[in-house]
């Protein structure tokens, strides 16, 4: 038969009639034959690894001498890193040196001064400067001021939400001790009502605080001043008092890093499109209700403003003649009036007009004349994304801080009403080197606008008169007006801090 079979290691051949026995390889022999290639591979690997290690050691010892000057594919930075690693030295880390802190002023503490600020951002800003001065000259410890949360704006912001509190404390440590809160023992006394609270007399000089306020602090240990606006006089104060007010205002009251960064972003966006003018357009609902000015408003709007005025008991003036007040120059200019003034002053039509204000009362209807004359009217809300302003919404003081920063850096600043922001920004811009600030003569403007609108004065004459009236009202250096016994009618210190100007020789009599 022509077939073969293997069975049990016996080879059976058919067709030849015989059986041939074949020797089977042993199991050990098969295993050795299979392991031989693996042993060979392992041995080769060990030998190669040993060679590599030896070459590396030789290279580290002799390489720098033998290969010195040879071209290398490594970059200079990689070579430097390798050299540092070889010597086991860490890479150098840049050291940012902090500005040295001023030395602490050592004085005997006469007690603690707590203050509750009132009003809007810039009213509180000026008050904080005054309170630092008072604490310094009474040798007391100042507690970080409490900000107004009950005014029209109903802003819940704390001091540290608007200002850099750490900078505020440390930058003044050589003048006065400032704490974030009362020490525990003193705090318990306050909680038990063991303190004195009062509003100081407005427009007082420093002697009032030494003679009247200091004895109260020594008696009660803790004094709470519950109103702080306009509590120091404009004039007649020692030079070092005035200079400390400036130091606090222009150096120690920095806004938080978030506000500062957002302000820089707005300024960059504006600068990309050329010069810009900041218009502090005080034509918001609260200002109109407070002042009683209703020029250009409908009957329904005038009634709404009147109801609002009566709703706030601390707004003492209720019955107001809007017509008479406007004629006396005591009303904020309307958007229509300011559009005529800017055109008369030859402000370029392409100039960016940044509106530093809240919501304009009357909306687009009242803004139509201004946006028609100046198409590039912008606001922070139009320059930024809603997400950028998300954390500032419903915090009017933080939004005002943003407008403050932009106002400082503007090519031209034009306030339409002499409120606290207008005054404080004006003074800050004077301090920065008399940056152009157009101080409008509202009484004369209203008279000229009415004549022009009635047709009794042509445009050329109107424009010429507006220019001539404001030629010397551009925020240049000038001496403060002093009116004895009438501090409210004097030039405000924070609008014209003449003692702090860098070149007092430039001062002229206004």
UniProtKB/TrEMBL annotation:
InterPro entries, per the entry: FucosylTrfase_pln, GDP-Fuc_O-FucTrfase
Main location: membrane
One GO MF term attached to the UniProt entry: glycosyltransferase activity
Keywords, in A-Z order: Carbohydrate metabolism, Fucose metabolism, Glycoprotein, Glycosyltransferase, Membrane, Signal-anchor, Transferase, Transmembrane, Transmembrane helix
Entry-linked Pfam families: O-FucT (PF10250)
Membrane-topology annotation of the record: Single-pass type II membrane protein
Entry's Gene Ontology cellular component terms: cytoplasm; membrane
GO biological process: fucose metabolic process
Keyword Magnesium annotated: no
CDD domains named in the record: O-FucT_plant
Localization, UniProt: Membrane
Pathway(s) the chain acts in: Glycan metabolism
Family under the similarity heading: Belongs to the glycosyltransferase GT106 family.
Protein name per Swiss-Prot or TrEMBL: O-fucosyltransferase family protein
Phylogenetic placement of the source organism: Eukaryota, Viridiplantae, Streptophyta, Embryophyta, Tracheophyta
């Amino acid at each position: 038969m022509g077939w073969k079979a293997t069975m049990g290691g016996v080879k059976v051949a058919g067709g030849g009639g015989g059986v041939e026995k074949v020797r089977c390889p042993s199991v050990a022999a098969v295993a050795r034959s299979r392991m031989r290639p693996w042993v060979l591979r392992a041995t080769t690997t060990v030998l190669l690894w040993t060679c590599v290690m030896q070459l590396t050691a030789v290279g580290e010892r002799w390489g720098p001498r033998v290969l010195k000057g040879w071209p290398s594919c490594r970059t200079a930075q990689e070579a430097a890193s390798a050299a540092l690693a070889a010597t086991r030295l860490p890479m150098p880390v840049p050291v940012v040196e902090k500005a040295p802190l001023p030395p602490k002023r050592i004085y005997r503490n006469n007690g603690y001064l707590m203050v509750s600020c009132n009003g809007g951002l810039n009213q509180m800003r000026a008050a904080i400067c005054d309170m630092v001065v008072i604490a310094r000259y009474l040798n007391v410890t100042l507690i970080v001021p409490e900000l107004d949360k009950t005014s029209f704006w109903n802003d819940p912001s704390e001091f540290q939400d608007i200002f850099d509190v750490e900078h505020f404390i440390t930058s003044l440590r050589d003048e006065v001790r400032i704490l974030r809160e009362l020490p525990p023992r003193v705090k318990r006394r306050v909680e038990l009502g063991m303190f004195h609270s009062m509003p100081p007399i407005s427009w007082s000089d420093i002697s009032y605080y030494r003679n009247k306020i200091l004895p109260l602090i020594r008696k009660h240990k803790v004094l709470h001043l519950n109103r702080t606006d306009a509590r120091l006089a404009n004039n007649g104060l020692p030079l070092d008092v005035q200079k400390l007010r400036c130091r606090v205002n222009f150096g120690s009251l920095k806004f938080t890093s978030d506000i500062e960064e957002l302000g820089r972003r707005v300024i960059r966006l504006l600068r990309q499109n050329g010069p810009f003018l900041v218009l502090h357009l005080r034509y918001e609902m609260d200002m109109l209700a407070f002042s009683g000015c209703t020029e250009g408003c409908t009957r329904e709007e005038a009634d709404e403003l009147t109801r609002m005025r009566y709703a706030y008991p601390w707004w003492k003036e209720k019955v107001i003649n809007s017509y008479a007040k406007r004629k006396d120059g005591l009303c904020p200019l309307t958007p229509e009036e300011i559009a005529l003034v800017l055109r008369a002053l030859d402000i370029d039509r392409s100039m960016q007009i940044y509106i530093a204000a809240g919501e304009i009362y009357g909306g687009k209807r009242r803004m139509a004349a201004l946006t028609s004359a100046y198409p590039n009217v912008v606001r922070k809300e139009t320059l930024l994304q809603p997400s950028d302003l998300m954390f500032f919404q419903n915090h009017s003081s933080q939004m005002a801080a943003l407008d403050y920063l932009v106002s400082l850096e503007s090519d031209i600043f034009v306030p339409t009403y002499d409120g606290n922001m207008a005054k404080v920004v004006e003074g800050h811009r004077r301090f920065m080197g008399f940056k152009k600030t157009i101080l409008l003569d509202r009484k004369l403007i209203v008279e000229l606008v009415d004549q022009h609108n009635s047709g009794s004065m042509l445009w050329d004459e109107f424009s010429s008169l507006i220019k001539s009236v404001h030629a010397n009202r551009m925020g240049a250096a000038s001496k403060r007006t002093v009116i004895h016994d009438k501090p409210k009618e004097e030039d405000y210190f924070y609008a014209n801090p003449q003692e702090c100007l860098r070149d007092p020789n430039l001062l002229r009599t206004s």
